[in-house]
Amino acid sequence: MIRYVPQDIAKDVTAFVEKSCKDTAVHKDEASGRVAIATTSSKDMDAISKKFAAKGFTY
Fold first, then answer.
1. Cβ atoms of residues 24 and 38 within 8 Å
2. Long-range contacts for 24-33 (Cβ within 8 Å, ≥24 apart)?
3. What pLDDT, on a 0 to 100 scale, did the predictor assign at position 3?
4. First vs last Cα of the chain: how many Å apart?
5. Crossing angle between the packed helical segments 42-52 and 10-20, to the nearest 10 degrees
6. What span, in angstroms and rounded, lies between the C-alpha atoms of 37 and 24?
7. What is the CA radius of gyration of the chain?
8. At CA 22, angle to CA 30 and CA 11, rounded to 5?
9. Which of 51, 50, 23 has the alpha carbon at shortest distance from 37?
């Protein structure tokens, strides 16, 4: 599953994914500045949703 990240929390989500999620990748489009995360791991999806739900970002 691929999901674009809101720009206001992109830096926090990127840092969390790179540190805590083994089966998830982060891609930043240099031209637009958009950040996307891609995963096939339901465990990673749950961790991301739990961490950022208060900021309105769920997987």
1. yes
2. 24/48, 33/7
3. 92
4. 9
5. 140
6. 7
7. 10
8. 35
9. 23
- For residue 59, is pLDDT > 80? no
In our burial notation (b when 16+ CB lie closer than 10 A, e otherwise), range 13-49 reads bbebbeeebeebebeeeeeeeebebebeeeebbebbe
Residue whose C-alpha is closest to residue 39's, from 22, 20, 56, 58: 22
pTM over 0.90: no
Distance (Å) of CA 6 to CA 9, 12, 16, 19, 57? 6, 10, 14, 19, 8
Cβ atoms of residues 41 and 21 within 8 Å: yes
> Structure tokens of 25?
């990748």
